[in-house]
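Protocol step 4 of 5: obtain the predicted structure for the target chain.
Materials: sequence only (see below). No template structures provided, no constraints applied. The aim of this step is simply to have a reference model before the mutagenesis design in step 5. Sequence pasted as it appears in the construct record:
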Amino acid sequence: MLAGNKACIAELVGRQWAGIAVCMAMFASCVCWQWAVIAACLANREGLPFGLLLGILRKRKLGQWPWAAKSNIGLSIDAWGDGMGTAEWRAAKSPAYYKRGDYVPGLKVDGMDAFAVKQACKFAKEHALKNGPIILEMDTYRYHGHSMSDPGSTYRTRDEISVVRQERDPVERIRKLILSHEITTEKELKDIEKEIRKEVDEAIAQAKESPMPDPSELFTNVYVKGFGVQSFGADRKEVRATLP
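Step 4 output (structure tokens):
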């Protein structure tokens, strides 16, 4: 993934982030610096705040990640339709995120169709490596609320969720496609589901039976040894002491 100039990083951030000025500033910078950026907005009627994108850009600029200075970077913007439990029309002036930026081309993709997503991502990668940034707006859906405090039904109806499950669910789409082409049988698919559920149940049981890890494990494989941990600009020595 990070070898040579064909490397790409897929980072998921929220549609809520895509509605603020820093999003356009990011695209402007990527166009100027000729970065291979793939911004995929997963529009499923919900919003999530942005994640590691700015950190990646900052670390690359500061030279803290040597591989980033030598590689094209593909970033994926994960935008979930609404503004984190807010109706889409209230979260952004225009929900057509693939049209953002007149100097950045965009495509709208059926995010509930695995094959459409695969082809769109393939096209986007080829385009980004040759021509620079491109936006993919993935038209998808989230069945549940954003968190425990979000019931997921204050800005939409239960009937709407049910209809999407019945008509657009990506797993059911694949199931129907497999059966219609007689690739396998209904019984074989059910057997596969049983095996998967068994594996999941066993993993859950093992996790519940396992003892709580030592607090020092919190930082295992998170920070590079010697890099240090900082909080609010202050070096936390008591935290650094727990690093391996």
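Step 4 remarks: The chain has three domains: 1-168, 169-210, 216-244. Residues 1-168 form one domain.
Proceed to step 5.
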